[in-house]
Amino acid sequence: MAHIAPSILSADFTCLGKELSAVENAGADWIHIDVMDGRFVPNITYGPIIVQACKRVTSLPLDVHLMIEKPEAIIPDFAKAGADYISVHAETCPHLHRTLQQIRELGVKPGVALNPATPLSCIEYIADQLDFVLIMSVNPGFGGQKFIESSIEKIKALSDLLAKKNPFAIIQVDGGINADTIASVARAGASCFVAGSAIFNTPDYNDTIAALRLAAER
After folding, report:
1. Who has greater pLDDT, 187 or 141?
2. How far apart are CA 132 and CA 50, in angstroms?
3. Residue 111 assigned ligand-binding role
4. pLDDT tens for residues 110-167?
5. 174 catalytic per annotation
6. List 34, 37, 63, 131, catalytic entry
7. 102 closest CA partner among 70, 133, 124, 134
8. For residue 157, which of 189, 127, 112, 181 has the smallest C-alpha distance?
9. How far is Cα 196 from Cα 175, in angstroms, rounded to an integer?
10. Of 113, 119, 175, 184, which sits with the fewest C-beta atoms within 10 Å of its C-beta?
11. CA atoms within 13 A on the CB side of 150
C-alpha cells in the first residue's frame, strides 16, 4: 500500500493549518516535516514549535526528517512536540545505533536517511533497529529538484537488504517525486513517497494525491 507524505517545505506558511487540513482531507497518509540547520544542508527551516503546531491541526502521523548536525541533542524536543517518526542522517551520527535507541526510547519510530552518495553499507548492521529508511533522491536542502535516476538501483538494493535483515521496515523516498517518477520508484521497492511541490504547487490536492497513489499502486 502506498503512503503519500506531503512535505510542508512547499506549503504556504501564511495558512499552514488550512494547508494541512486540505491534504489530510485529500487523502494524505503522513505529514513530512523537513528540519534544516544551515550547516548540514545550506538552508534553515524550522524547529519543534512547528511540529507542535502541526500536531494541533492534523491527526496524521508527523514524519520529522532531521537534516541537522548533532541531532541527538534536540531529538527529545521533537519527540515532546509530537513527532511520530524521526529520521536522522547516517552522515551526521557517529554513534548511529545509540541515536536510534534514543528515538525509540522516547516512543517515536526511528528511521535513517541516506544522501544520494551514501552507501547502503552504513546501515547493514543496524537495519534490524529501523522502522523505515529514507532514500534521498536529490541532494537535500531545497525543494523542487530533479529526481536522480541512479536512486532507482539504490532503492532496489535496499529492498533486497531489508528483505533479509528487516522485512517490516518501510522504504521512503524523498526528492523529485511526482506523477512521472513515482511509478518507477514504487516498482523498485518503495512504499512511502514524500512530495512537496508536486502536491502543494497544484490547484487540486484531491486530484493530485489520488493520481500519485494510483501511479504508485498500478
Report:
1. 187
2. 23
3. no
4. 999 999 999 999 999 999 999 999 999 999 877 677 899 999 999 999 999 999 999 9
5. yes
6. 34
7. 70
8. 189
9. 9
10. 119
11. 7
**Number of domains into which the chain is organized:** 1
65 labeled binding residue? yes
CATH of the domain at 212: 3.20.20.70
Q: What is the pTM of this model?
A: 0.97
Does residue 182 register a pLDDT over 80? yes
Residues 86, 128, 102, CA angle at the centre, nearest 5°?
40
Q: What's the rounded mean pLDDT across residues 166-194?
A: 97
CA angle 39, 42, 46 (to 5 degrees): 75
Q: Are 8 and 16 in contact (CB under 8 A)?
A: yes
Any binding-site annotation on 82? no
Residue 67 — very low, low, confident or very high, per pLDDT cuts 50/70/90? very high
Domain range for residue 121?
3-217
Tell me which of 29, 37, 63, 174 is the catalytic residue: 174
> How many residues does the structure list for the chain?
218
